[in-house]
Amino acid sequence: MKNPPNSSFVKSLGIKGGEAQVLMLHDSSSAVSSDDAKFLNLLENLNIPYLTPASIIVFLLKKGAIKRDESRKLLGNLKEFVSDEEYYLAMDEVENDN
Q: The whole model's pTM is what?
């Protein structure tokens, strides 16, 4: 997508609130971060790049912005809000980061 979706297009998708605002602000040089599975599915269908909070933590670790212990702690804080699969995949990346 070259231009952010306009409000009538966003309304036609049936989303509102913060997710609608995020979608209208998105441009082709950015990605969206969300943990809402329904919204992520919509982003996928619209070919809009996205990151989950767990993937951001792994990214920050790999870039050296945070340490392994901090990554574990942050993922632990997310555990109840993300799927088991996402949590364990992210934790595996943290534990096996070289």
A: 0.75
Which of these, 86, 3, 78, lies nearest to 40 by C-alpha position?
Answer: 86
CA dihedral 19, 22, 24, 26 (to 10 degrees): -140
d(CA 50, CA 72): 22
- Rounded CA-CA distance 31/49 in Å is 5
Give the DSSP per-residue string, 34-54. Answer: ---HHHHHHHHHTT--EE-HH
Pull the structure tokens for residue 22: 């995020």
Q: What is d(CA 78, CA 2) in angstroms, rounded to the nearest whole number?
A: 33
**pLDDT (tens digit per residue) in 73-97:** 999 999 998 889 999 999 999 999 7
